[in-house]
Design a protein that fits this description.
Radius of gyration: 11 Å
Order of helices and strands: HHHH
Strand content: under 5%
Shape: globular
Structural class: mainly alpha
Distance between the termini: 11 Å
Helix content: 55-70%
C-alpha cells in the first residue's frame, strides 16, 4: 500500500509541479532542501495530499523535517489513514 502512496506522490510532483512527466523522483530524494520544490509548490502538494488521501496536514508540518522526501510523506500519510 505504501508503494502506491509513494508512486502517486512522485507522479503528481513530476507531472503537475515540475512539469516533467518523465522525471524519476526517488523515495529519499530531497524535495525542499534541494530546491526541487518551492513554498508555493509545497502548498499545492499539501492540498493534493489532503484531497487524494483524505488526511489533514497541519500548516506547521509544511517544512523540510516533515515534507522533504517521498518516504517521509508516505509515512505521514499512512499513519493517518
Amino acid at each position: 500500500m505504501t508503494e502506491n502512496i509513494t508512486a502517486t506522490l512522485a507522479k503528481f510532483i513530476a507531472e503537475k509541479i515540475l512539469k516533467q512527466a518523465n522525471k524519476v523522483i526517488t523515495p529519499d530524494e530531497s524535495l525542499i532542501s534541494s530546491g526541487l520544490i518551492d513554498s508555493f509548490s509545497l502548498m499545492d502538494l499539501a492540498l493534493f495530499i489532503e484531497d487524494t488521501f483524505n488526511v489533514r496536514i497541519e500548516d506547521t508540518e509544511l517544512n523540510a523535517q516533515t515534507f522533504d522526501n517521498l518516504s517521509q510523506l508516505t509515512e505521514l500519510i499512512a499513519s493517518r489513514q
